[in-house]
């Protein structure tokens, strides 16, 4: 009789986590709940919406990105493959301690993640992109969030991906205390889009009907609701001109005074809807001395 002993060896396998914070609920995660009391304002309008490919009509409503984040997976606007959208807020975003705003997508899981680049601007013309990292090495429909940094869409629906303006360099065109616009650009998940170190970025691709990044909301943690910058002021030929930093959707009142005590209303006007500043000009007053100011009404 020959005795045979069979030994079954089970090799446990586990994925090696990446170097960045993990999914919502995981220890050390940077995800921010939609109900976080730090949020003080949300998107109030959009400057442009450039629709990418493979999106049906029901997902093409930018206004669904206005207001607070929800857990309704249908209350979103799709960017489509390679699409983009530029949004604004009641007041500028400013650089404070830690995260300054968070972007919400509608993913149903911690790993089916559709991604977008995030850019910001003070004037609506010059944009600067947040540095990003994607360590996903090949095409896949399942992404480990610990391999992602600086890309919107890292977290499932109901949880925002945070962005800190301190992570950006400060070119002359960007005022970190007056960030009026946030732009999201869908990332084609086939590896043609690159992160800041020129590595290919992969996410679920292709998809159809509601392709690309699905924007739920953007919540602001640090806002600048104080003074706004005067871009220029003074005499221009035979008149007076003033230009100031403004947010689309807001209204302003021009006032004048002979003594900075009694202020007289001159005109109310909306902010320029196409950029980050508004101007006003008037014929030179007959008085030898006059003071002018701009009052935000919203």
Q: What's a concise summary of this model?
A:
The protein is an all-beta fold and 298 residues long.
Question: What does this molecule look like?
Answer:
The protein contains no helices and 21 strands. Helices cover 0% and strands 36% of the residues. It has strands spanning 32-33, 41-42, 45-50, 77-78, 84-93, 101-105, 116-121, 128-129, 133-134, 148-149, 159-163, 179-186, 190-194, 200-202, 214-220, 230-236, 239-245, 251-257, 264-270, 277-283, 291-296. By secondary structure, it is mainly beta. The strands form 6 sheets. Strands 1, 2, 4, 6, 11 and 15 form a 6-stranded antiparallel beta sheet that branches. Strands 3-5-12-7-8 form a 5-stranded antiparallel beta sheet, with no helix packed on it. A 3-stranded antiparallel beta sheet has the order 16-17-20, with no helix packed on it. It has 2 domains: 32-220, Sandwich (Jelly Rolls), CATH 2.60.120.260; 230-296, Immunoglobulin-like.
Strand content: 35-45%
Q: What would the average pLDDT be, to the nearest integer?
A: 92
Uncertain ranges = 1-14
Q: Would you report the number of β strands?
A: 21
CATH superfamily (homologous) name of the largest domain: Galactose-binding domain-like
Q: What is the highest CATH level, the class of the largest domain? A: Mainly Beta
Helix share bin: under 10%
Q: Would you list the SSEs in sequence order as H and E?
A: EEEEEEEEEEEEEEEEEEEEE
Main sheet properties: 6 strands, antiparallel
**Sheet/helix structural class:** mainly beta
Mass-distribution shape: elongated
How many structural domains does the protein architecture include?
A: 2
The second-level CATH architecture of the largest domain is Sandwich
Spatial gap, N to C terminus: 93 Å
CATH topology of the largest domain: Jelly Rolls
Gyration radius, in Å: 24 Å
Count helical runs.
0
Organism: Luteolibacter luteus
Keywords: Signal
Protein name: PEP-CTERM sorting domain-containing protein
Signal peptide: 1-17
């Amino acid at each position: 009789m020959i005795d045979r002993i069979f030994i079954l060896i089970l090799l446990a396998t586990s994925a090696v986590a990446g170097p960045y914070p993990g999914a919502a609920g995981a220890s050390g995660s940077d995800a921010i709940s939609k109900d976080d009391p730090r949020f003080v304002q949300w998107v109030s309008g959009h400057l442009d919406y450039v629709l990418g490919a493979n999106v049906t009509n029901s997902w093409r409503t930018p206004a669904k990105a206005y207001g607070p984040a929800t857990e309704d997976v249908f209350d979103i606007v799709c960017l489509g493959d390679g699409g983009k959208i530029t949004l604004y807020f009641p007041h500028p975003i400013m650089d404070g301690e830690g995260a300054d705003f968070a972007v919400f997508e509608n993913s149903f899981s911690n790993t089916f993640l559709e991604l977008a680049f995030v850019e910001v601007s003070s004037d609506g013309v010059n944009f600067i992109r947040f540095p990003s990292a994607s360590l996903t090495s090949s095409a896949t429909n399942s992404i480990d969030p610990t391999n992602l940094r600086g890309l919107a869409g890292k977290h499932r629906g109901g949880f925002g991906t945070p962005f800190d303006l301190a992570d950006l360099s400060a070119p002359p065109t960007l005022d970190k205390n007056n960030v009026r616009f946030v732009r999201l650009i869908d990332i084609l998940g086939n590896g043609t889009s690159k992160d800041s170190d020129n590595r290919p970025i992969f996410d679920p691709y292709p998809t159809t009907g509601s392709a690309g990044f699905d924007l739920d909301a953007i919540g602001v943690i640090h806002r600048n609701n104080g003074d706004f910058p005067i871009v220029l002021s003074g005499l221009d030929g035979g008149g007076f001109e003033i230009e100031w930093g403004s947010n689309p959707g807001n209204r302003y009142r021009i006032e004048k005074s002979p003594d900075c005590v009694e202020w007289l209303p001159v005109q109310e006007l909306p902010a320029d809807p196409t950029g980050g500043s508004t101007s006003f000009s008037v014929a030179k007053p007959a008085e030898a001395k006059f003071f002018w100011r701009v009052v935000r009404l919203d």
